[in-house]
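Write out structure tokens for Anaphase-promoting complex subunit 4 WD40 domain-containing protein.
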Amino acid sequence: MSTKTFLKHTDFVSTLNFHPQNPNIFISGGGDDIARTWDINNPDKPLIEIPKQNETIDFAKFNFDGSLFVTGALDGSVKVWTSNGEFKKLLEGPTDEIRFLNWHPKGNVVIAGSADNSVWMWNAISGQYMSTFTGHQQPLTCGQFSPDGNLILTASEDASVRIWKPKTGELIKKISGFGFHQEQIVCFDIHPVQCILASGSVDKIACISNYQTGKVLGKTIEHDDGVESVLFDSKLDIFYTGSLDGFARIFDLNKMTLKDKISVEHSVTKMIFLKEYSLLVVGNCNGEIHYFDHRKKGIVGKLTSGSSSMLYDLVQYQQNKFLASFDDGAIKLFEL
């Protein structure tokens, strides 16, 4: 059930992110070139709006303590703002669309991957460029710090995952070639405890790899279209995939065998896992949201947005509550 709707955006909303210290505050950004922060209890009026930018805001994320947020745009610009919306720094370097943007888990360091094939790292306080990570042969698609912050993992349309040392810019592992993806990688998830990575590709395959050794541990062959989303279960040895073929799947992590396959009727666009309820929440390109429990067969429930606008992003709010953003500019709070 949708309990609140936030309607100030006039175009698709591509990114949602909650404040790490104040769970009622979140930020949004999208195709109207504006980022907004909100109090979840007041859907009628944003807390702040940054000035309209030159291009779509693809990413907007708070830092570890919520004192800053960073935006990344279609024109390649990366900007740092205070939580009150004051512009602080332009982080210079990328020359094309920002494909991923993430903070260090414990500090004010930002990494961004670009369609110009490069990865950049900056000190967000000073705006100082720290390092460039070069080697990918095609545009970046996803990337983030390892959970301990000691490594950077990146993936690209060149069908490779690369692992870097942040302090030196050194490439320490490259995962590619036979036994791995043969076409562009579009998503990955890093296990919160184990040094393993799940990746999904347009080649219809999901792979599990050890990012310390660079070894591919296994891959799936069950998808009938590209793998758009992958997620680990933090408690159990299973992982989830969402595909353009309209199915979410559950795999045994150790055996790499298919445990269940659930139709969500249309291509999967985004997934989140509500660990308190052991529920996987799956959004699709028709604006529908399905949720299911891996311990039971089939769909537990289905939610609709009230339109057929594609779902862009999902983020958990509290336990059984989450936000979803859509192609028509709406942001909705749902409660299961």
